[in-house]
Amino acid sequence: MKIYHASNLIDAQIVKDQLKIAGIKCKIINTQAHSLRGPGFLPFTTDSLPTLVLLNTEDKEQALKIIAEHESQKNKEDTSHDWACPHCQNENPGNFSICWNCQTSPETLTQRTKQEDLKKESPIKTPIYRTFPFLFFLVLATLIWILLKDA
């Protein structure tokens, strides 16, 4: 499903990367057609622009929110200041919503930290269903060893 017509390939790639960070799968089509726009070639329509195609229609609402945020960021003047990434401490321009070095957004890092804190608080380190194959192998190896020892 076509979800976004970018003005150029760079803009399309930026939006694609933002969607990828959010876990939304998409691809860019018409990557070469935009260079053929003009008199005698392709008409000036959205069909010849780089276009993002959503691979899973269930992600449409979340993708539209991310695209709307991108458009608002793109249209407003850069009045913000540079910021340091909380993950890798690299300096980023104020108009960047994600770190150019590690592709981490401050919101993503906060979510990861909360999930890691929940994992640390859990009293069970490894779920029982993950230890079952090891226990099965251990019992089987012990039985084989006993049978071979007696033979």
Describe the structure.
The protein is mostly helical. It has a domain at 1-76: Alpha-Beta Plaits. The chain contains 4 helices and 5 strands; from the N terminus they run βαββαββαα. The strands form 2 sheets. The chain has a 3-stranded antiparallel beta sheet with strand order 1-3-2, covered by helices on one side. The protein is elongated, with a radius of gyration of 25 Å.
In brief:
With 151 residues, this protein is mainly alpha-helical. It is built from four helices and five strands.
Radius of gyration: 25 Å
Q: What's the CATH first level of the domain at 1-76?
A: Alpha Beta
Which of globular, elongated, flat, extended, rod-shaped describes the shape? elongated
Major beta sheet summary: 3 strands, antiparallel
Q: Mean pLDDT across all residues, rounded?
A: 76
Distance between the termini: 67 Å
Q: List the helices and strands in order.
A: EHEEHEEHH
Under the CATH scheme, which architecture of the domain at 1-76 would be assigned?
Answer: 2-Layer Sandwich
Low-confidence stretches: none
Determine the strand fraction and express it as a percent band.
5-15%
Given helix and strand content, the structural type is: mainly alpha
CATH topology heading of the domain at 1-76: Alpha-Beta Plaits
Q: Percent range for helical residues?
A: 40-55%
Oligomeric state of the chains?
single chain
Total count of strands: 5
**Please, how many helices?**
4
- Output the strand order for the largest sheet: 1-3-2
